[in-house]
Every structure is written in structure tokens, then in C-alpha cells.
Amino acid sequence: LHRVPSAITYTIHKLEQDLDVKLFDRSGHRARLTEAGEALLREGRHLLRAATDLECRVRHVATGWESELRIAVDDLVPTERLFPLLKDFYREAPGTRLRLTTQVLGGGWDALMSGRADMVIGAPGEAPPEGLLAVETMGRFEFVFVVSPDHPLAALDEPLSAQDILQHRAVSVADTSRNLPPRTSGLLDGQDALTVPTMRAKVAAQIAGLGAGYVPLLWAAPHIAAGRLMKKEVEGSKSMTNVYLAWHPHQAGKALTWFLERLRDKSIQQYILGESGTYPPTGG
Question: Which residue(s) pair with 120 in the sheet?
């Protein structure tokens, strides 16, 4: 500490007086921490670390980096596909906290419009008509109609008709919008539906034979290969869906700008959307 023992002793006595507690037991040959002293040492270390972190974050924000960036990720995108990108970001800007939420259908647009998110990754369908957002096409997801091998639709000739499908339950993922009108996808008018909270749950429900429906090929491919799901052709089916990257243009700090620049990289887009199995090298 570069201080003489008497100065340290004075500081400890002053601390004990200010706290009105005994921090050291001096009854033996050597002073030992009391229980209160142990607690002060333990908790004080946390406070000092938090103070240091706060100081770093303040300096970080002063240079134009956001203290927190809230990213809404559509449920079509497996969250783990973003982890290599997040690792790159933390190497660049460890002082910015990231908060990821999963949204479904119009939920990403809703989170952005209501101020609950700063950007959205992989939002499907068209943006709300208000025109307050910056929107860029990120890519497309290929969808396939799949059923479990023991589902009644598995035995029918292809292509399946709408009437064939209408007679059986669909599995649908619930829209997470709070303010915007909820959207649906792949449901026929009058069709019975089992509604689940996530794409992962939808895939599991269809493997269990609880219903049928369209699933992104990225999610379905390993289960088709393993024989847990069967792909079925459908008359007039729309197999591709555009997904978008969107943000508030007037709130683009350094963290948001960093993500936009990286997410415009085609090789990163292809990895996130499952078109490539390899994340590009840093800077690639």
C-alpha cells in the first residue's frame, strides 16, 4: 500500500469508529478479523469491483458506446447462431451490456416500435406502415411442411391439398406482439391449432405427432435426416420467407453501428440463417 504501519492502524481505527463496529479481535498475539470484519472484507471487495466496473462503463459511454443494447431476435433464428458474433463484440466493447429477447412473428416489430428493443434480427414479414424504422433485408428462410412418420398425412400421396391439411391439427407458434395486431403464418381458415410458445416447442410437438405444419428447413433438416420428421410437398406452397434487420435510425450509437456493419456481411448472414455451417473468421 506504500503506507507506514501507523497510518494503516489509524485508518482501521477510524473505520471502526465510523461504522461503530469492531473489525479486529486484538485479544491475542495477532489481530484477527471479527465476523463483522470478514463480512466487510468480503462485501467490500464486491463493491470495489462494482465501482471499478462503473468507472469503466462511464468512460465507455462517454466515447459513444451504449451502456446497454437491447436486441430482439426472432424465434426463427436459433439464438446459439448469434454466439460467435457476440464473442466478437465483447472483444471489441466489453463495457456494453447486451440484452437479448426472443420474439415471434410480429413481436420483433412490436418490441422495436414500443421502445422495448433497439434493433431486431430476423424479423419476418413486412414492417409496420408507420415508417419510423430503418429496415434492410437480411435474407430468406426456406420452409418445409413436415409431419411425424406416424402422422396420418405421412401416408397420403403428394402434393398434399389444402383440404387434406385442413382435416388435421396444425402446430402454431404464438405471436409475441403486445400492441400491434398479432400475426399468424401457415394456418388455414377453420383449421384446429395447437399453439406453443417457441419454434423449438413446435418442432418437438410435430415430432410427437401432435400436429403438422411448416418449419424452417434449418430447424427441420436434422430431424428429417434422422427420420423423426417427413417432408411433404404441398400444392401451391410458399416455401421462402424474407426476414429483416431493423433499428431506430436516430439511436445508432457505436454498439448498434458495430452490429449493423457485421450483420451486413453476407457470410455472417448466411451463417445466422443456416445457409452456411461455418462462422467466418473475425474480420472476414
Answer: 72, 246
Report pLDDT digits (tens) over 61-83: 556 688 899 999 999 999 999 99
**Rounded distance between C-alpha atoms, residue 93 and residue 4, angstroms:** 40
For residues 236 and 246, give the distance between their C-alpha atoms in angstroms, rounded to a whole number: 30
pLDDT at 60: 46
Residues 6+ apart with CB under 8 A from 171: 193, 194, 196, 202, 205, 206, 210, 211, 212, 213
What lies within 8 Å, CB to CB, of 89 at 6+ separation is 96, 98, 255, 258, 259, 262
Q: If DSSP codes are grouped into helix, strand and coil, which group holds residue 193? A: strand
Longest dimension (CA), the chain: 92
Number of H helices, E strands in the chain: 9, 11
**Element (DSSP H or E) covering residue 225:** helix 217-225
| Residue for grid cell 406502415 | 129
**Contacts by 56-60, CB closer than 8 A, 24 or more apart:** 56/95, 57/95, 59/95, 60/93, 60/95, 60/96
